[in-house]
Amino acid sequence: MLRATLKGMASRKARLVLTSLAVVLGTMFVAAAMVLTATMEKSVSGVIADAFTGVDAVVTSAEDPAAAQGNTPSATLIPADVLDTVRGVDGVDTADGDVSGQVNAIGDDGKLVGAFAPTIGFNWNDQSTGYNEIRDGRGPQADDEVIVSAQFVTDAGLSIGDTVTAYSYSADRADYEIVGVFGLSGDRDSLAGETQMGFTTAEAQRLLTQGENAYMTIYVTGDAATGDIADAIGADYRVQTGEEASEEAAEGFAAVADIMGYIFLGFGLVAVFVSVFLIINTFTIIVAQRQRELALLRAIGAARGQVVGSVLAEAAVIGVIASIAGLGLGVLLGWGLSQLVSSSAMGGLPVELEVPPTSLWALAVGIGVTVLSAIIPAVRASGVPPVAAMREAVNPPKPLRGITIAGLAVTAVGGVLVALGLTDNLGDLGLTGFLTGVGIAFVGITLLTPILSRPLVALLGAVMSWSFSGRLGKLNAGRNPRRTAITASALMIAVALVTGIATIVSSFKETTAELADQNLDSDLIVMGQQGANIPTFAPETLAEIKALPDVSAVGDMYGEFFGAEVDGRQTALLASEDLPTSLGIFSGTVAEGSADLPDDGLAVNESAAADYGVELGDTVPVTFADGTEVPLRVSAILDDALLTDGWWVAPAQIEHFTVPKPMQAYIQVADGADVDAVQDQVDDILADEPEVSVTNNADFVEQQTSQLDILLNSVQILLALAIIIAIIGVVNTLVLSVLERTRELGLLRAIGMTRGQARRMITVESVIICLFGAVLGIAVGIGLGWTVQQALEEEGLTSFALPWDLIVTYLVAAVAVGLLAAIAPAARAAKLNVLNAIAYE
Amino acid sequence: MSTASPVKTTAVSAEGVWKAYGTGEAQVVALRDVSVQFASGAFTAIMGPSGSGKSTLMHCLAGLDTTDRGTVHIGDTPVTGLSDKALTKLRRDKIGFIFQQFNLLPTLTAEENITLPAAIAGAKADPDWIKKIIHTLDLTDRLSHKPTELSGGQQQRVACARALASRPEVVFADEPTGNLDTRSGAEVLRFLRTSVDEFGQTIVMVTHDPSAAAYADRVVFLADGQIVEDMTEPTADKVIDKMKHFEELVAAAQEAAA
Ligand SMILES: Nc1ncnc2c1ncn2[C@@H]1O[C@H](COP(=O)(O)OP(=O)(O)OP(=O)(O)O)[C@@H](O)[C@H]1O
Ligand SMILES: [Mg+2]
C-alpha cells in the first residue's frame, strides 16, 4: 500500500509542491520566531557580559533598581563615603562610582538628539575605558568637556571640536566642548541605538544627582568576597558578583527579545492556521480526483483503514519533507531577521546564531498540522463505495445544512469567548480568551462560507459575466461551494486580520480627531513628541506666547506623573497658570466651587472625588515627588471631561514638581487673525525650545496617530505572508480544477473556444474566489474591529470609523491577486492538448 | 436514399494524408496515404476494426490534429497549415462535433449547451433554427435541465442539437451511439438521418455498429490506416457481410502497401 502511495505521489509532483509550500511557509515562520528570540538573547547577553568583563563585584542600592531609572532622583543613590568604605575593604583593588541617567542634548538642527532612544549621560572614568574604545580624541578633563559616542555623532550631526548644549530635568543648560568620540567594543556605535555623553564625575553629578556627591553604582575589581563588602557597607546596599549583575542586566534585554519572538510566533501561527485550509482543500480535491482509483482499490479488496492510511501516509510524507525544509529556511530567516534587528535597532550588535531545541516544535507543528488536516479528506476517501469504480464519477454537491449549523454554533462559541475576553470576565486570561475566541470564530465563519458563497459568488459573478467566458468562469466558481469557500477562507482570514486592525486604528484616529475637535477650543498646540522624557519648555516662553498680540487666550498644562500621592495613593498631579482659562479651552466646566484656586486649593473631577470620597471643602494630604507634604483643600469640583480629569493644584505648588515647566500650551488665536501667521510667530519663539514645536489641530491629530500607522504597516507586511499562502491556495485549487475539468476544457476548445477565452474563463473564476475571500474578510474584519471598539468605548475609544482607503486597496489587491493566481492555471488551460483532453480514458 | 441535394459539391476532402505516432521502433502509422471526399448533404459512416485509424482520420479532417503529409479541405478552406487561432475559428464556425460521451458542460442547462458555440463566438444563434432542431429532437420540455438531470440518450440528443445549432458545413460524430441502448441510439441516428434529408446537413460518423452504419448513404471501411472499401447504399446485412471478409481485405491492403 505504501509503495502505491509513494508511486501515486511521484506522479503528482506539481500538486505536492504546492501543498508543501504552504507547510514550508508556516513552519518557516514558527522556526524563525524561535531562532530570532534565542539568537537575540544570546547576542545581547554576550554584549552585556562583555560590559562586565573584569568587574568582580557590583554595588547598588537595596531599593528597587527600577525606581532608579527615569526622571526622579531617588533614595537609590550611593553617597561618596560608601565608595571610600568599599575601597577600604580587604581584597578590593579598584572601586569606581558610576553616575548615569538621561540627559537632553541639542543637536545641530536645534532639536533634541535621539527623540526616540534616550541620550545617556554618565561619568567617564577609568572603568569606562574597559568596554568603550576611544576612537578619536580623549576623555573629558574639565567640567565643560565631553566625550560622545559614535552614535551621538551620527544623530546629532556634531563632532569633535564642536560645542554641544546639554541639560537634564534638574540642571540648566550648559555648553560643552566635544573632546573625544568613543565606540563600543566590537566596533559598534551603540548598544541599541542610544546616544551617549561622557562627562567628568562632578559634571555628571550636577546633571544627574542634583549635585549630590553620590553614585548610582559602584564597580569593584579585586578578589574581595561580596560578603565582606556587604558587611562593610550595611544592609542599605546590594552587592552582586559581576556575573550575577551581568545576568540580571541581560534579563531585561531578553524580555524585549521575547516580545519580538512572540510577535513573530503569532504571525507564524496565523500562517500555520491559513495553511491548514490549503492542506485540507488540496487533499479533498486529490481524493475527489482519485475517487475511482480508491474505489478500485476497495473493489480489489483494500480495507477502509488501508485507504485512510494511504491518504494519511501521503500527508505524513509531505509533512515531514516540507517541515524539514521549513525548519531549515526558518533558521535562515531567523538569522536574517536577527541581522536586520541588530543593524536597525541594536547599533550593529554582532549576531551569534543560536538554534534553540524548541525550534524542533516547528517540525512537530508542520507534520502535525499536515496529518491532522488530511484526516477529514482521508476518512471521506475511505467512504468511497467500491461500485464507484464502475460508475461514472458524478459528485453531486453535498447538502450544506450540517456544515452551516456547525458553523453557526462554532461562531457563537468564538463570539462568546471574544466578548468574555474583552469584558474582563476572564481576568488575567482576557487576552488569551480574546485571541482564542477570534481563532474559533474564524473556524466557525469558515464553516459558514460555503453557504455564503452561493449568493456572494452569484453577485460578484454578475459583475464579471459581461463576456461569455466570464460567465462560464462564474459558473465554475459557484460549482463547488465548499471548495470555493475553503479556498477563499485563507484569504478571508488574512484580510480580516488586517481589516480588523485597520478598523481599530482608524477608530483611534477618528476618536483623537473628534477629541481635538470637540474638546479643544484652540487653534494651535505647543507640545513635543513623547520620547524618553516628557517634553517641556520654559515658563518664560509661555509668557512670551501669551503676550503675542493676535493670541486671545492660552491654556497651559504642567504635570507630575511619577511619585506624587493624594491621600496616600499614587496619582498624577496637574497644574495650570490660569486654570479658569485653561478649563475654557479644554472644554472643562466647574460643577461646584471656583476654578480660581487659592494657593492651598485643589480641583478634581466628580468621579475622582467620588473615588477618593472627598467633597468640596475637604482637606486632603498631598505629597509631591520631592517629598514635600502639604494639606490641600478641595475648592473646586469639575464635571467629568476628557481632558480635565485628575487632580489640579494651584500655580503656587508648581515649584514642587520634578519638572516645574509647562508641557503643553493650547493657543486660541484672536478672531480675524491669521492662524498660519500666528503659528509662524510661535515657531520663532520656540526656536530656542528643543523639546517642543507648534502644530495646528490637523497636524496634531496626525502626530498623535503616526505611531499607529507604523504599527498598522508592520502588521500588513507580516500578514502579507498569510496572503502569499492564500495565493498559493488559490493557484492550487485552480490548477486542480483545471486538471479535473480537462475533458470539459477539451470539449470547449474542440467546439471553438479560443485559448484567450479559456484563459479568461479561469481568470474570472480566480478573481471571483479572491474577491469573495476579500469581501468576506473585510466584513469579518469590520465586525472584529467593531467588537473591540465597543469593548474599549469605556476606556475612551468612543468613535467607530472604517478605513475606507484601505478597504478599497484590499479589494483592488484581491483583484490583482486573482489575476496573479490565475496566470499559471490559465496558461495550463490554454495550452491544453485538445486531442488528449477529449480522448476517452 | 440520398435525394436532398441535386448538385453534389465536396464538403470535406483529404488528399494523400499520412499520420504516424511516435518514432523509431515504437512508431505506429495510423493513416497511410488516405485520400477521400465527403459530398455535402451526405451521411457517411466510417468503419473498421479497433486501431484502424478511424478516430485519427476524423481528428485530422476536423482540424483537431495535424497531418504529417497530405492536405485536408473543409469546403474551400485548406485546413492544413492553419494556425491554432484559425483552426479554432474554423471549428467554431464550420464544424459540429458529437463525441461518444462528455459532450456537455455540467454547469450549463440543456438550452445553454445547445447555443454554446454561438455564445463562444459572441454571436446570437438563429432562434427559428434552434427552435426547429429542438422540436425535431423532442427536447422542448428538457431545455432548463442540467446535463446530470438528463438520461444518456437525452444528453446525446442535446449534443446533436448543439452540433447542428450553428449550421456547420460538416458534423463529425465519433461513435455517437456507442454508450447508448438500442432505442436511444436509434433515436439519435434517426435524427442524424433527418438532418441530412431535410436540412441538407453533411455528416461524417465513426461507428462500430453495422446497424448504425445502415443509416448512412455511404460507408468507408478503414483497415490498418488505409481505405479498403467504399460502399454506397449500405444495409446492415451488407456491412456485416463485408466485415466477415475483413481479414482478407486487410491482408490485401497490407500486400498493396508492401
Ligand atoms: N496519441 C497517440 N499516440 C500514439 N499512438 C496513437 C495515438 N492515438 C492513436 N494512436 C494509434 O494510432 C492507431 C489508430 O488509432 P485510432 O484511435 O485512430 O483508432 P480507431 O480506429 O479510432 O480505434 P477504436 O475503434 O478503438 O477507437 C492505433 O494503433 C493507436 O494505437
Ligand atoms: Mg476511435
Automatic annotation (TrEMBL), chain A:
Give the UniProt entry's GO cellular component terms.
plasma membrane
What is a single Pfam family found in this protein's UniProt entry?
MacB_PCD
Any GO MF annotation of the entry: transmembrane transporter activity
Which keywords accompany this UniProt record? Cell membrane, Membrane, Transmembrane, Transmembrane helix
Parts of the chain that traverse the membrane: 259-286, 307-338, 358-379, 400-422, 434-463, 484-505, 717-739, 760-786, 806-827
Domain spans labelled MacB-like periplasmic core: 17-233, 484-684
- What residue stretches are annotated with the ABC3 transporter permease C-terminal domain? 267-386, 717-833
Q: Which family does it belong to?
A: Belongs to the ABC-4 integral membrane protein family.
Protein name (record): Putative ABC transport system permease protein
Instruction: Give the species.
Output: Glycomyces artemisiae
What phylogenetic lineage does the species belong to? Answer: Bacteria, Bacillati, Actinomycetota, Actinomycetes, Glycomycetales
From TrEMBL, chain B:
Cross-referenced SMART domains: AAA
Please list the coiled coil stretches. none
Gene Ontology MF terms in the entry = ATP binding; ATP hydrolysis activity; transmembrane transporter activity
Domain ABC transporter residues, every copy: 12-249
List UniProt keywords, sorted A-Z: ATP-binding, Nucleotide-binding, Transport
One matching Pfam family is ABC_tran
InterPro entries this protein is in?
A: AAA+_ATPase, ABC_transporter-like_ATP-bd, ABC_transpr_LolD-like, MacB-like_ATP-bd, P-loop_NTPase
- Mind naming one GO cellular-component term on file for this protein? plasma membrane
Which named protein is this?
A: Putative ABC transport system ATP-binding protein
